[in-house]
Structures are given as C-alpha cells and as structure tokens.
Design a protein that fits this description.
The protein has helices spanning 3-18, 41-57, 64-93, 97-117, 120-138, and strands at residues 35-36, 39-40. Strand 1 and strand 2 form a beta hairpin. It folds into 3 domains: 3-57, no CATH class; 61-93; 96-139, no CATH class. Helix content is 74%, strand content 3%. It has 139 residues and is an all-alpha fold. It starts with a helix and ends with a helix. It has a two-stranded antiparallel ribbon. The chain contains 5 helices and 2 strands.
C-alpha cells in the first residue's frame, strides 16, 4: 500500500474507534489534546518520529563533515558577495567616486604594465614567476 492509502486507512480506523463512547470531546465540549475528531495525534507523531529516526540512522555521518564544510564555504562566499555588492552600490551612489576609481584602476594597471612588461627580461621574469606559482599550487 502507498503512504496515502495507509494514512487514509489509519484515519478511517481512528474515526471508527472515535464513534464509540470516547469521541475525543471532554465534558465541557472541548477536544482533548491527543485525540481530535477520533484521530490520535500522539500515536501518529510517534510513528513519524520513529520513521525520521530510522532515516537518520541510515546516514553516514562521517561524510557530513565534508559536506558541512563545503556548505559553509558556499554560504560564506554568498554573504561576502552580498556585502561587496552593497558596498559597490553605495559607492556608485556618490557622484564623483566611480569615475575616480576607474581612473585609479587605469593608473594601477599602467604602472604594473610599465614595471613588468617594458623589456623582454622583465617579461621573461614575469612568465617564470607565473610558472613557478602554477607549479607550486597546481603541482
């Protein structure tokens, strides 16, 4: 049987039981906490909790450390991107600052290019540094 059929059968059986002398309504006309309309919530709650515990027991918790770390890194990157976007949007609201920052970027790129790309010896040294970094980090 599927879960829906099982649930419907359980509800039907609970309703039949509830049609007897104990309908889940106390003397004041209020429904009791555990039995509403002939359906016993505490029993159903216990069934659901036992199924959840069985499912959790099947999980290999040793691998959850790696997954947790990866999720944490992804969450930190998302938060950092949101913060950076907020800062950049605030800077863009100022009238002169975005143009000055673009000019500053051009000056920095020009300075780096002048320092590292003007002669063949400097270009060769740059290529050697890049290859050394690549070898160090990528193996």
């Amino acid at each position: 049987m599927s879960d829906l059929q099982t649930d419907a059968t359980e509800i039907g059986q609970a309703a039949e039981v509830g049609q007897g002398s104990d309908t889940g309504v106390n003397g004041s006309g209020n429904t009791s906490a555990g039995n509403v309309g002939g359906f016993d919530f505490t029993e159903r709650y216990g069934d659901v909790i036992s199924k959840v515990n069985q499912t959790l027991d099947q999980i290999d918790w040793n691998q959850m450390g790696r997954i947790g770390k990866a999720a944490g890194v992804i969450l930190a990157v998302i938060v950092a991107q949101i913060l950076i976007k907020g800062v950049l949007d605030t800077i863009n609201l100022l009238p002169v600052v975005p143009g000055l920052l673009e000019l500053l970027g051009l000056v920095v790129v020009g300075n780096w290019s002048w320092k590292n790309l003007t002669t063949s010896e400097k270009r060769t040294a740059l290529v050697n540094r890049m290859q050394a970094l690549r070898q160090e980090y990528l193996g």
